Protein 1
Amino acid sequence: MVLDVITPDVSRLVEVGETLAQWQVDGGPVHLHPGDLGWYSLRGPEETASSMRIWADGATPSAIGLLDGPQLLRLAIDPARRDDTGLAAWIADSVEDPEGGVFAPGRATVEARGAGALTRALGQKGWHEDEPWIPLSLDLSAPVQPATARIETIGEDRAGDWVSVHWSAFRGTALDDAARQTFINRWLAMTSGPFAPASRHLVAFDQNGEAAAVTTVWSAGAGRPGLIEPMGVHQDHRGRGYGVEITRAGAAVLREMGSSSVVVAAEGSNHGALATYLAAGFVPAAPVADMSRDG
């Protein structure tokens, strides 16, 4: 097998996203999703393309990865080739080799959910299981329980509301004017980028009209699983059910977009996120672990 490791240019991003979308199947692993590329595109299309790696036989991708940080590779493999030992060996060799175009020397992590052959190949090279993640899914064949809070699907004119809640949920620090404008600019880059048509951005408001929770959801096309990435609740509004409300609302939007289910993965140690998704009706699957090597 002669396998090339390709870094695509910007012109190929839509094509790569469409290939990833075709690899999303109900009951399959919660692996790299086109929505993950969409969320990463906060950084702009050029950086998104430069952070991607494609393992291909000629023009046909067999695996698609996103370097979500210099030493973390998030990966999806063509479902027909998850147990292909030859492909697994080539990928394992390329991530192990500092000249392989993926990782520098030192500690590194591969997120290879559902890729049993690759997991075994990495294990044979001394990689070990890292902390577990819990995949969760919600079947969208029936209507989703409606939210009771006011929830709006927003556009660019409400970017400030979305950004403020996300910052509070994930940073927990004061948001000064400069940081706020930087984040808004990045959010606008995402919402005008190559993956934007597959996304919807939601905000939940409290009884006083204050933004309380946000999510972005990503479709992979009709009849395929959609993704929640990210979801967060403002620190001032935690413990009041807004996480469950915004999650259900996002799932309902994905159902309207034709998604067959909605998926997400949460760290096993993130008890708050797990409780939210379970309360929203998601069903957990068996824990999965990334593969890591020590520095």
Note: The chain has two domains: 4-133, 139-287.
Protein 2
Amino acid sequence: MTSFYPVDPDEPPGPPGRGRLGRPLGPIVAQCPAEHRAWLELVRQAYLESGLTMTVLSRRVHMARSKISELMSGRKYPRWELLATIAAEVRLPAGPLYRLWRQAAPEIRRKSRAWSAETAATVAVQHSPPLHHTGFRDLTESGYGFYASVFLPGPARAAAVEETYDQLWLAWAKALSSPDIRRHGWGVLRTSVMSRTPHIDNCHHFLHTAFDTLALHNLSGLEHAQAASEQLAETQDLLRAMSRLPAPQLDVIVLRFLGGMTEDEVSDLLGVPLAAVRSDERHAIRFLDSVLCPPPDTEGTPS
């Protein structure tokens, strides 16, 4: 096969992890967008676990080491045909990787006609996900979808959930070896959702859809404009206070009080003990009460 890039001399594969031959991978560049980074980190991890050196990978994919390093650093967005070749060598399934790559591509490249034609003509090899992955999705998809809907509008919500399951598929062995696959999966989902969530007021999370839902619910039956206005203000205050909660407490409150889930259901979805759910809920409510219903100021009151 004729190479399109200069290929470096042969070198035997090195052992995976520490002690491997060749130069270590450089870091991903800071300006690499979140959706690009989402799949790139998984490709890098698969390469490190493969035991291949950069030289051996260069020979196998017929690409110069400098080009592979550029791809692995996120400095440029690769064509699918190049990424697919590397994915095959490091044993990553093409289907979920292609979806992640395609999802990130419009955010990074201005698609010319040639780019669009190349993308449209590319067909990813479709594989069925592992059976356990399918079962895990069946058990969690409803909860994941609701959580994403609290922070994101429709298209972004669907993209975050799909990205979560594709990332889990690409690193399914790692997910299975984690202390609790439910907790591992929740961490992947939360990262995907928050990377798309608008932020205001010192990076607090703005609960986009939650405001619409609560406002409509609370305003039902209110006939006077003043009462409606006051109710809207209270809803805004509540969500603004919720946005200041630490991540575990925010998640529990969202699932319990916006999603109507029981403590046991929250515990199962998050993969945390029931006692932790109750503790997070208790601390969150205490904080919200302190913000929304502060004690009266008694300073200067005559004794």
Note: Confidence is low (pLDDT under 50) at residues 1-19, 120-125, 215-232.
